[in-house]
Structure formats: structure tokens, C-alpha cells
UniProtKB/TrEMBL annotation:
The keyword Signal applies. This is Fibrinogen C-terminal domain-containing protein. The lineage of its organism: Eukaryota, Metazoa, Cnidaria, Hydrozoa, Hydroidolina. GO terms for cellular component: extracellular space. Keywords: Signal. The keyword Transit peptide does not apply. It comes from Clytia hemisphaerica. PANTHER family: FIBRINOGEN/TENASCIN/ANGIOPOEITIN (PTHR19143).
Amino acid sequence: MNVKNLIRISLILFWFETQIMIIASKRFEIVGRNKIPNKTPYSTVDVKFEQHCFSKCHHMTKCLSFLINRTSNAMPIRCHFYDSISTNLTDIQITTADTKLFTTADIQDCQDLYNSGYKDSGVYYINFLGKGQRDIRCDMEIEGGGWIVILYRMTGQHNWNVGWNQYKNGIGEMTSDFYLGNELIHQITDSGQYQMYFTTELRAVDSPPADPMYYGWYEHFHVADEADSYRLSIGGFKGGQTDLLTHLDGTQFTTIDRDRDTNNNKNCGNVKKGGFWWRACGGFQPTSIYLDTNSMRCMGLYTTAGRTCTKNFQIMIKKKI
């Protein structure tokens, strides 16, 4: 066989494998890295290339999801095939292998995950909004599930007294305390009509509060672009103990290095030690110092009982259906 024919055969094989990936990519979405289903696969096959896992599942009528397990220093690649969309997942710690779980569902946000049967809150690795793979934290328990978490503070990690660019691009990581970032929040809320929900647990000072869990639900939530300083549009208070956020409608985002609040005497970002849609430096403070017992500064909010520190904060958004 001459060199020209060998080249032709190689090109045909390359085209064939590439087409399998293209065909399969229209059908499969990755939903997790280093996560494994809590069920037994109906078939396990060793292959030479990852795309062969796509091809085999693509041609199996009963295959609805599959796991690719690739050990870094050894062959072969192992494909595990499942006859259902694997929604009950377990996180695994892997240092020598790469494990990826794919499903036949078209998944681009937390609502898609929930509708496909993924009912566990946590971090998923998905093709978010069709713009590329990334980790995203979803809450699947509150008010029908499918919520995209945009702010998550549980342990007091990270410095939140930072500048404009940090709040623009995001703070922390999905597996710990984090803020998703104003630019991405703008892109999400600009893609449709979104609602917002927050939850927080009040911190006992002198005595335990009668109702430690505090929440608010708003039918409308939108963040404008950077040219408008990520101006907030919020309204339609739907539920909760007290409407704490409607008065912030129309405010621009303020940080320690960019003062956009309506307080003419001070920069609320400096006063509260965190960036937010401040109006007069009070009321709702999810980005303030987590807890400083010496100065009595804390993350918190104003309730009917006055200013109250909180143990945690979670702010979520979901597209209105």
C-alpha cells in the first residue's frame, strides 16, 4: 500500500471518529466530573478512544447515560453504560483518573437538571447556558427546585471586602463560599425573565430567635450590564417575613473602589466591608464581614426586632416558566 493510500485511510478514520463526536455531542451533555452513579451499569466496555463510548451509547437503544473512566497512566478507557438517567450521584476523590458522566438530556441550567431527575442540591458540571462547561451550584429543594445559586456564604471563607473586578468576575469557588460574579449574573438574567429567592439563618445573640430561618421570594430579578454599573431591577415580593429588597430596585452596584450608592456622605462598600446594591448602607447585608465579635460587625439583616446577625446566606435565581 503506497503512502497516498495510507494518508487517505488515515483521513477517513479521523473524519469517522470526528463525526461520531459531532453526532453524539448533539445528544449528550456532561453533568458531572468525579461523580459516579449509585447503581450498577448494565454494560461495561473497554475502548481505546473516549469517542467510542459516545458511539456505543448512541447506537444502544437502552443507553440513557454513561460514565467514562480514564486512568491517566494506563489503558484502556472504560465505559459504563446505564439504562436510566443517573441522578443519584456520589462524589469521589480522584488523583490518578478522570471520570466524566454524560446523559442524553439537554441540560444547560439547574432547571434542566431538575426536570431530568437530578433532585440533589450541590455542584454540577454542565454546559451552562450553552456557553461552555463550568461548575454551577444548584438548589433542588426550595420551591420546586432548579435554582441557580449566585451567592453562597456558610463558613466565612474568603475576603469579601474587595474591588469592582473581583465582584465582576466572582469570588471563591463553588465548593466553598462564593459569589457567582456580576457579569455572569447579568448574562443569565438578560437571557429571560428570572425570579429570586434568598434564605438565611439568624444568629442567636442573647436568646434564640423565635423563627431562626428567614427568607424572601421575589417574582422579578434582573441585573443590567457593566456600562450601567450592574443596576438592579427587583420587585414582586411574593413571600417571606418582611420585604427587605424592593427598596433597592434601581440601585447600582457599589464596591470599595467604585461608589454607586445613593448615600452622599459615605461609600457603603467601605462602611459595610463588602460590595452590594447599597442604597443607604443598611437593611440587607449578605456580603459584610462574616462575624467580628470585637467590633460587633457581622453579615446580617434588619428584621422587625432590629439588626440581626446571620449564620449563613444563600441567594438563588430561577427562570420564570
